[in-house]
Amino acid sequence: MWNRLLRLLFYTVVVGYACLTLGPFLWSTFTSLKATPDINQLWVPLSDLTFANYVNIVFSDQYPFARWFLNSIVVGLIVTVGNLVFNSMAGYALARIQFPGRTLLFMTILAVMMVPGQVILVPTYILLSNLNWIDSYAGLTVPFLVQSFGIFLMRQFFLSVPRELEEAAFLDGLSRWGTFWRIVMPLAKPALAAQTIFIFMGNWNSFMWPNLLTSSDAMYTLPVGLNTLYGEYDAFWNNILAGAMFMTIPVIIVFIIFQRQFIKGISTTGLK
Amino acid sequence: MATTTSPPKQQRQRSPKAGRGQKWTRDPMMGYLFTLPVIVSLSVFLIGPIIYAFYLSFQQFTFLNPDLSQFVGLDNYTRLLTDERFHTALKNTSFYSLGVVPVQVSLALLLALIVNSKIRGKTFFRVAYFLPTVTSTVAVSVMFLFLFKRDGLVNAFLSLLGVEGRSWMLDVDFALPSIMLMAVWTTVGQFMVIYLAGLQDIPADLYEAAEVDGAGPLRQFWHITLPLLKPTTFFIVVMSVIGTFQVFDQMYVISKGAGGPLDSTLTVVLYLYNVAFQDFEMGYASAIAFFLFAVILILTLIQRNFFGEETRM
Fold this sequence. Notes:
CATH architecture of chain A: Orthogonal Bundle
Largest sheet of chain B: 2 strands, antiparallel
Number of helices of chain B: 15
Low-confidence stretches of chain B: 1-20
Protein name (chain B): Carbohydrate ABC transporter membrane protein 1 (CUT1 family)
Strand content of chain A: under 5%
Radius of gyration of chain A: 23 Å
CATH class of chain B: Mainly Alpha
Number of helices of chain A: 14
Shape of chain B: globular
Subcellular location (chain B): Cell membrane
Distance between the termini of chain B: 37 Å
Pfam family, one (chain B): BPD_transp_1
Largest interface: A-B, 99 and 100 residues
Strand content of chain B: under 5%
Mean pLDDT of chain B: 87
Structural class of chain B: mainly alpha
Membrane topology (chain B): Multi-pass membrane protein
CATH topology of chain A: MetI-like fold
Number of domains of chain A: 1
Strand order of the largest sheet of chain B: 1-2
Family (chain B): Belongs to the binding-protein-dependent transport system permease family.
Oligomer: heterodimer
């Protein structure tokens, strides 16, 4: 009797919290499909729903929404590839190659991880504006091509991989560079997958930096664009939420596909 | 970029183990080449700016007119003592952190225990609980603004319970607590997963032994799970504190950059941002940034002390 009651309580909590996490997405999706005259109606019959708002947003004359989407994709890809290559190279060197200054470099990387990003907000802005990189792809990508956390992650990963294979390849005459690309990187697939997800998502959702570094409509990334959409379009909630869902749904799809790796990636990086 | 090593050495080096290892690992040239991109990038975009920000924090500096900048010693730091708006921002941020961190940590543990137990549809619940974490803070802020509107869904539910609705995000007393609720909702999944990893690292035979000794689930939790999760908890508390003290996006979107109504959602970073890029007082903004750095550092050290030596990261 008590056991059954406890089970019931347990499942109520489990399902209840799932409703709390999924509810806002479902409600926002629902609203984003309402026709404009129905915005203030809480409930409308499902047959009255329409994709007009999505079409409206994507092909709007007022807002280059498609361009924002493209900007987010381009910037995200460049930043992700840069991080994968550079963080891995450095992580590999820190784990495997001995050279004077290696410890100092590693300590520096650990130390700067402690400094909150807001400290460099002002100097970075001044630097980029002197380089004339404000409002450009260069400004949105170049400062973010390397991440200390990623270097740390890759170093830890390479330390845990047995070195015999690389050693053998190296002794068989493969160059250091060749060993790195053909032996080491393929071995690092799980760590690279975790990093890809982290960095791409982080970049896709990043708001403070792009908001600071862009000033023209055409250079906005999706979060910056969505913020202006809300700022100026206030009453058209169906359009605003269509915009919000437009930038959320791709992430949700990617997340569901890579869910296993994603959670594994978080758990391994979170604890190391 | 590719370099080839000379093959003749192969034969000699294959047998003696010690010599082989040394030749393989000591390679300064390659060490520097491999770390060059990182060294350049970190110097130009991180270490240089950190040093420059420190220098700026002793200057009266306006981006619009750099020639007029002058050394003002500790003025920017002493100004923090008397700046009312800064005090409001610090108070709001501390309140936010004090409210969010404990809820977040305990809820994350509870959810991790749930999705780690033998429930049906485990994967579904893991995904459902984690979903808010992957969503952009801007999209989430917009969604919650809509839900918490005067004629929104939250008020519709509350009216069923007889509670009078209000414009939550526009209310001086409720704007910040509403954002805190949203913050827990968005980030708890991430900490849940870290706890989940911690739970799975606990050897199962510990529980088996405890069961043989007659310990019930509650005692097992108290004497095995909690103590063994201590390092994880330390990590999560530190991450949560750091995150809450750096909060910016939600407040910026919801208050349209101003921290309103009546500064009730003004946080340290939002204030820093406005001081730097609206008032263009970049020296003062840098002092605020270093103050923030000091607060985070001190809180982290205190927690490390509190959680004991074994939780060194």
